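Changelog-linked ticket: 3-phosphoglyceric acid example.
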Amino acid sequence: MKKVLVATIKPFAPDAVTGIQKVLDRAGYESILLEKYENQEELVKSVENVDALIVRSDKADKEVIRAGRNLKIIVRAGAGYDNIDLEAASAKGIVVMNTPGQNSNAVAELALGMMVYIARNCFDGKPGRELKGKTLGIHAYGNVGKLVATIAAGFGMDIYAYDPFIESYVIEKDGVKVVDSAEELYRTCQYVSLNIPANEKTKESINYDLLNLMPAGATLVNTARKEVVREKSLLKIFTERDDFKYVSDIAPDCKDKIEANYPGRVYFTPKKMGAQTAEANINAGIAAANQIVDFIEKGDTIFKVN
Ligand code: 3PG
């Protein structure tokens, strides 16, 4: 009997867990649930005899991969797979997949929610600003970026996007204007929504030179990863510009400093919660379970990332 470990420090909604278990039961697989574990050793121990692993932002590092003697597949129930050591997995012939698009709407809704919150002075009752008519830059037009654009259009925002990997006409047919460089995007837009993955190329790529191009009333919205923003630049821009605001689902290491010094201009969710809705959990969790069954039964490698 194939064994599948579902390891989530931040648990899925109960309906998502039931859905995952149903898919695995139907395939005749055993599902093992490891939730809210407190240290990495628990994950290392639990992975020892399983054939497949489902994770969220949980770290599938070298030790986990080494310990998974029978491991054939790891599925990241979500988009970003920067938490998985792809090199170590590939070296052991383990397939790694993500579930693109399954939790994107939840993340996009949070991006707009944070924009409204900061534009209305964190709901302190004083006159704020509206999103209508403001320029919004979508930095990377993937599944989340596209949905941010769709929702922002409903607010009447003027939407731009920069994505060197997507043909302009694909973006333009959504009524979004395409710019040719990140610099142009930041120069044009009062709001910039970060939807880029964290990798060697993007880490710390959102730096002072880019941020300082933003026009008056600048707000940076980060539902991507904290690592993509250079924190030194963030601190410098806050010191120099009293119009700059930052909202993020992933608090920077300098959180305490900027919260204390710039109240009303920053907001960080208490825990990374962009994808933390029942709908997103159900979509991503069940997709992950189905991808595992399809891989083991039919060799289907859809959404393989290594
Ligand atoms: C993702 O990459 O899918 C999101 O960042 C969600 O991460 P989470 O599953 O840890 O909430």
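Closing comment: Example verified and attached. Residues 10, 56-57, 78-80, 103, 272, 274-276 surround 3-phosphoglyceric acid (CB under 6 Å). The chain has a mean pLDDT of 98.
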